[in-house]
Design goal:
Family: Belongs to the TRAPP small subunits family. BET3 subfamily.
Order of helices and strands: EEHEE
Distance between the termini: 34 Å
Radius of gyration: 16 Å
Number of domains: 1
Strand content: 25-35%
Helix content: 10-25%
Function: May play a role in vesicular transport from endoplasmic reticulum to Golgi.
Largest sheet: 4 strands, antiparallel
InterPro entries: Bet3, NO_sig/Golgi_transp_ligand-bd, TRAPP_component
CATH topology: Muramoyl-pentapeptide Carboxypeptidase, domain 2
Oligomer: single chain
CATH class: Alpha Beta
Main location: endoplasmic reticulum
CATH superfamily: Trafficking protein particle complex subunit 3
CATH architecture: 2-Layer Sandwich
Protein name: Trafficking protein particle complex subunit 3-like protein
Number of strands: 4
């Protein structure tokens, strides 16, 4: 919502703890013209994974967030895989009064 994009959500897991976000348009691609020579393993879009992981931690959910496809690597779409690991303990994060 904040980046001006709407992903397509796909879930092919029977246990319903994994899903993918497919971005037809990745706003970060506009800021990177070409990967530097010898640095093809760089993943500029990992910033999005960190944002999603951080947002889920704010609502007390631990998740593994990884890139499955990346337009900067020549794929047709950007796909982010999300696997829910566990619900975090809320007591640990509460403020003491």
């Amino acid at each position: 919502m904040y980046l001006g994009i709407t992903p397509t959500v796909t879930c092919n897991n029977a246990s319903r703890n994994e899903f993918s976000l497919i971005l037809d348009k990745n706003p970060l691609v506009e800021f990177v013209e070409e990967l530097p020579t010898g640095r093809s393993s760089l993943c500029y879009c990992n910033l999005l994974c960190g944002i999603i992981r951080g947002a889920l931690e704010m609502v007390h959910l631990a998740a593994d967030v990884t890139f499955l496809q990346d337009r900067l690597k020549g794929d047709s779409v950007t796909e982010i895989g999300i696997t829910f690991l566990k619900k975090l303990d809320e007591k640990k994060y509460r403020r003491k009064k």
